[in-house]
Amino acid sequence: MTNQEHLLLVTGLSGAGKSEAMKALEDLGFFCIDNLPPAFLPQLTNLQALAVHHQHRIAVAVDVRGRSMFDDLFVALDRLQADDVRHQILFLDCADDVLVRRYSETRRRHPVQEGHSLFEHIAAERRLLAGVRDRADLVLDTTQMNAHDLKARLGRIVLGRDVTNALDVDVMSFGFKHGVPLDADLMFDVRFLPNPHYDPVLRTQTGLDAPVAEYVFAQPETALVVDEIFALLERWIPLHAAAGKARLTVAIGCTGGQHRSVAIAERLAQRLRERFEDVTAVHRDLEKNAARRSTDD
Known about the structure:
45% helix, 9 strands, alpha/beta, single chain
């Protein structure tokens, strides 16, 4: 999918993994629209132009379960082509026996009710979708894929890169007195380090200020803390990514979330960016502390 082809249409056999594909594409940075009636596709022209401007990609899952919608789909595709809207069609396929097993496990009703058995329903849907499949730019067989495999495969064929180790890492500083972050995956307590709060010169500054950072890292234990947390994350982040996780939040806590945790979170995020792509330092309680200081003044 080139930079100019910002619109990806996702369709295919019922049970072949369209919902999982849309979840994976959302994790990969696509703006996703699920089960859009085909007749509305030409109306995405303005949205597609906006996506090109902002370098975003759009994925649209097209639901063509109703017979009347098949004609709408081909008309819509012709209209996109006539309007020179760059797009690709991704068709998800799957072996019949696997589709039968998936439907048997979920006990959902197959949307195409032709014949008496699931195999007959699937065969009827294949006939209905034959023209769509022939028109597809990308055909992906999900027979042997789990959700993680599907995401990895989509990354390669849609984005052209390996996304098996791609996940967003947030390094969050916080203060225990404001409560622990409920969305943290890993949490480290650095309250054992000397607190700059007790230095009158540093009290009103934060870990983003050089004097505070110098104070925190003048303690020999601080560098050791960052080294050991970094070594742990260097091993664990790829494991979380390989398990299909899209985001990992690493929380660093001190008493107020103003000095030690902020300085350490900044340094740790800097180290992690040398090894991983999407790392962000987040300071949850800095604004709270600033608001409290202004009130006290």
